[in-house]
Amino acid sequence: MIESNIKVADNLFLSPMGCGTWAWGNRFLWNYDPTMDRELEQVFNLNVSQGVTWFDTGDSYGTGKLKGRSETLLGTFARKYQGDHQNDITIATKLAIYPWRLTPQSMINACQKSAERLGKPVDLVQMHWSPAKYLPWQEKPLLEGLAQLYHQGLVKGIGLSNYGPKNLQKAYDFLLTKEVKISTLQIQYSLLSTYGLTKLELKPLCDELDVKIIAYSPLTLGILTGKYRNLDNLPSGARKSLFKSLLPKIKPLLQAIDVIGKNNGKTMAQVAINWCICQGTIPIPGAKTIFQAKENIGALGWRLSSAEVMELETIALGLEKQMIQNIFQTT
Question: What distance in Å separates the CA atoms of residue 113 and residue 245, rounded to the nearest whole number?
Fold first, then answer.
């Protein structure tokens, strides 16, 4: 039984786990091909039918000529879907902070183009990253654009992504002057990427500001699923070199996840996702296949014990190596 949806804004509710769609159109990292679209629609339908009703995307998702492909697919699938939870389908998109987006209107235009690809309004619009590291004066006009989207009734909520506590507080305070509240914050978060909560200590601030934390890459690009156990079994493409450096250093964690999974009758992926839920975040694991979607859904409806949560965290923090951080993550 899936838990109740989480209220993040007055008219915006998110299921306790979403589905990330970075791979839906990305050839560079995920080897996307249009022949996958039929199964991706089945993934969408299964998620919605089982109560996983919100999907995270971005206007930059889809490589090369496939830019915007993820949004286009989601829009097509949402229009065609008929079944349980049909009226609960929610789409969150992230607007890229391109150097040519400099004015409030540029963000409004970008969101409207996303809505056109979706064939429906964007429910949750998010700033994909902060330009604070390289072009800090760009930020306020773009936040102003998000505020205008909200006041014009074009979106139900506003979120940020890859923000640390200092920049989150600044953005929060600025948007309050525009009479808009930040609803969500996306951070890279998993058992191999605890930086946002352990080093940046984002959780207390988010609790204070009533900002819900969305955990992207909760399976660390798939390495926490247990599919890749040794150097003779590595994914092709860009992930290969990354996993080659990680695997020898994270064996204690993989072994612990495996044991705890077997003790609970769950897979390693389900344990890793559930751990993120137990930490008070809303994870958005990706899924390209029905098998992956079913496995992700199996992370819901149960809880690791507090002892198991602590054991995994202790092992994770003691590892020689963790996942590299997103270069856009701010402090």
Answer: 40
